[in-house]
Amino acid sequence: MSSNRRTFLKHIGLGAGVAATAPLMSSCTPTGEEENVKYIRESAENVPAMNFNMCGYAAPKLDKVRVGFVGIGDRGSGAVQRMTYIDGVEIVALCDVRQAAVDGAQKILEDAGLPKAKEYVGSETEFKRLATDGICDLIYTATPWEWHVPVGLAAMEGGAHAALEVSAAKTMEECWQMVETSERTKKHCVILENCCYDFFELLTLNMVRQGVFGDLIHGEGAYIHDLDYWHFNKPKDDEMTDGAYYKMWRLHENRRKANVYPTHGLGPICQAMNINRGDKMDYLTAMMSDDFTLGKRIEEKAKEDPFFEQFVGWDMRGNMDMQMIRTAKGRTIMIQHDVSSPRPYSRIHQLSGTRCFAQKYPIQQIAFGHEVADESKMKELEEKYTPEIVRRVGEMAKQVGGHGGMDFIMDWRLIDLLRNGLPMDMDVYDAAAWSSITPLSEWSIANGSKPIEIPDFTRGAWRTNKPVDLSMNEGGTTGVRNLVNVNAEGQLNI
After folding, report:
1. Per-residue b/e over 30-55, b at no fewer than 16 CB within 10 Å?
2. Rounded to an integer, what distance in angstroms lies between the CA atom of residue 318 and that of residue 315?
């Protein structure tokens, strides 16, 4: 990361010695010699010294994990409900700008036979008061994206571990702030990437660990999801959950010319490739289509409802964006994002190795050559390679729900690791690296798809950091409770 731009371009074959190709790159730059949004690249290259390596760090055990929730809308209320089923959890605080959201969460606790939590209601910065009260071991954040890092920083500074919904950070500055604060305070900053705990992703991850894929060559992931309803559903502040975004924040975020939501597709691939734990993402290049739908939909909605007139004329992000990433060990990754065209839901989740291939969408399949594994072979693979975490809590997770159960596995695993004093599956370096794709893709798109180096948030420790452990040789001691009252229909599944 200490190399300047000239050094980097030389490293990837665009500098001295291949001058004939360089004009092809510069000719794509919208403003010629002027580099657009160069502050992003500069922030990426502003690397602080490592204070402490949080990868593999085992924080002191917590017999009881006192949890406070910040942001209790559709996503946050589901998290509150899931946590009521996990032993060793005390839900001690609820924070939201809306009283209706907190009241709804209190009802969830009452229905579960749990005591009321302390309330923090009112301004958008009530989380600061919660963090400084010192009553939480873990602060779980499910706010709009702009508040993820401010809440997480406040949590760590106040002596609590932080768990941040995805994406964890919006800017390069925020990525480095998370890293620096976690290292200095020795508090975990966990990205809540639920897709890392989906059943097929866990199966294929274990197959990678057991050598079934051979050497991984390539991975693909995505977030392709028609969010038209949610983009244009107006909030109802007098309801706990309303299938809408507070202050239409998701529509606002879709003005940014970047992959604003990369981690669902990227996270599982990074774990399979041991990113930050044996390999690292080296550089990326990004591209985006024009907007063919969002602006028109705003105009259509404005004709139906004057409320939407305020958004007419907005310059919206393109429908499809994609990033190509190369790793230090020569692997490649492709990430896609499209939330505004009429396509069926897909995270793709594709892994290609020297011996095996797997892909989840549009159909779930595994192959060892031209022929796709048949039903009996798939059953054989599942019986042999389903990881221990799924064997222990998978069926219970399906009962609780949340994207088919992966949300519950994620929450259970987080609590179990904290209670047993074990390292996190997804640490602050993962939170920063996966989230950094947003600002870095913005830089590349703004400059004609030029490549940019991806910071090494581990500052070289990736070479020796140990991969995520799926063995369950340690931990796994956390039970579940109240499953007799389980209601998976209360979980958000978008």
Report:
1. eeeeebbbeebbebbbeeeeeeebbb
2. 9
Q: What is the pLDDT of residues 319-372, one digit of tens each?
A: 999 999 999 999 999 999 999 999 999 999 999 999 999 999 999 999 999 999
**Do the bridges between strand 118-121 and strand 365-367 make them parallel or antiparallel, or are there none, so unpaired?**
unpaired
CA neighbor of 464 nearest in space, from 56, 156, 129: 56
Peptide bond into 340 cis (omega under 30): no
DSSP 8-state code for residue 47: P
β-sheet bridge partners, residue 326 = 283, 332
DSSP H helical segments within 186-243, as ranges? Answer: 199-209, 228-232
Q: Which domains does the chain have, with CATH numbers?
A: 5-44 (no CATH), 195-385+437-463 (3.30.360.10)
Residue in 65, 116, 125 with CA at minimum distance from that of residue 95: 125
pTM over 0.85: yes
Q: Label residue 96 exposed, middle or buried (CB < 10 Å: 0-12, 13-18, 19+).
A: buried
